[in-house]
Amino acid sequence: MKAIIPTGGRGTRMQPLTFSTNKHFIPIANKPLIFYPIEAIAEVGIKNVLITYNLGWLDAVKNLLGDGSKWGLKFKYVLQKEPKGLANVVEVCEDELHGEEFVFHLGDNIFTEGIVDLYKYFMKEKPNGLVAMVEHPENWRLGVPYFDKGGNLLKIVEKPKNPPHKFAMPGIYFADSNFFKTFRGKDKVKPSSRGEYEIPDPFTWMINHGYKVLVKEYKGKWLDPGKFGDWIASNKYLLEHKLEGEILSKVDKTSKIKGKVVIGNGCKITKSFLKGPLIIGDNVVISKSIIGPYISIGSNCIIKGCKIENGVLMEDVKVKNIKRPIIGSLIGSSSDIEDNNKYKRSVSLFVAEKSQVRI
After folding, report:
1. What is the residue range of 66's domain?
2. For the Nucleotidyl transferase domain, which residue ranges apply (predicted)?
3. How many domains would you assign to the chain?
């Protein structure tokens, strides 16, 4: 079996960050988002992974991920020439699969308990396809499985107006080579109204043509950090439930630490209070500040005279002397935020297109 992980997509819901950064590269709990699906694939023992990318992104993706050896894997990079939907992502990988079974794991989804149970179920039952499902209060935004009275899967509908239950499909799919028959012949799958090949359609096609497609509920927590608020919530969940404390730098005697805290190498923490769960990268300088809980701070950041909690600071961020608490923020790399005391009754802003500012 091989794995497919996409790195494409426009990431419009995460603009303005995604004007200059691939969404899959943005960190959650100080780890690039795409690292989570890679780790899930490595955990089940799959060794060969196809990483798909869009035009103009190959160098950036390769620079971040390399050849896969970091995880004991072997990466092959596959171009998706046009953003034609998730089913097309799989379609462009057909030649590299060489007839093998595959798992398609979205690069921007996190399955907090891994995918081992789903993998074992697929290997045991040997269906032609397997889709996972989770209970979701807004399943109308996703693909929804429909069942007959006996509980057998009938079809999967993308973003239905009136779903009959609260279950939806998260971003994990298994199939064999019969999946690719759906793109051939007179009754092949067609693009949706938005011009994309939707991932539910090939599985519905397989069901209609007598192939065995199963569905299994995923029991762990599924995180889909597609929007700003979801990103903050996902970061909080991972820090709260998955963080193991580790302190690799000295903290001065005037500082206090409470709860689970990770501090990287080369950090300097003085006259500050760190309230976990929180994670701090390497070479971070923090002074006269109250940090946490639920905050991820990237490497090489400088924080002075601030109160910051529940958010994400990417690398090389400077935040100095902000009098009001900074809560629920996602701050892009190399940003500089400072109270310079020049404007007593006004605020000076340098804001990019489609930014969000709350004062």
Report:
1. 2-229
2. 2-238
3. 2
Q: How far apart are the C-alpha atoms of 261 and 272, rounded to whole Å?
A: 13
Residues pairing with 105 in the sheet: 172
What's the rounded Cα separation, in Å, for the pair 18 and 252? 38
pTM greater than the 0.90 cutoff? yes
Please give the span between the terminal C-alpha atoms of the chain, in angstroms, as a whole number.
Answer: 51
Provide the token pair at 351: 């804001």
Q: Is the peptide bond before 16 cis (omega within 30 degrees of 0)?
A: yes
What pLDDT digit, counting tens, does each position of 114-124 carry?
Answer: 999 999 999 99
Sheet holding 285-287, edge to edge: 268-270, 285-287, 302-304, 318-320, 336-338
Residues 6+ away with beta carbon under 8 Å from 132: 118, 169, 170, 172, 173, 215, 216, 217, 218
Mapped onto helix, strand or coil, the DSSP state of residue 60 is helix
Q: Which position has the token pair 């995604």?
A: 18
Pair (225, 142) in one structural domain: yes
- Chain centre distance of CA 92: 22
Whether residue 211 lies inside any domain: the answer is yes
Whether residue 352 has pLDDT greater than 70: no
Are 124 and 216 within 8 A, CB to CB? no
- Dist CA 290 CA 271 (whole Å): 9
Closest CA relative to residue 7, chosen from 70, 45, 68, 64: 64
CB 88 within 8 A of CB 4: no
Mean pLDDT for the chain overall:
92
Q: Are residues 76 and 201 in the same domain?
A: yes
Instruction: Kindly report the CATH number assigned to the domain that includes residue 288.
Output: 2.160.10.10
Give me the torsion for CA of 32, 33, 34, 39, rounded to 10°: 90
Q: Cα separation of 288 and 265, whole Å?
A: 20
Which amino acid, one-letter code, is at 115?
A: I
Which residues share a beta bridge with 174? 103, 130
DSSP tag of 186: T
Q: Compute the distance between CA of residue 188 and CA of residue 198 in angstroms, rounded to an integer.
A: 13
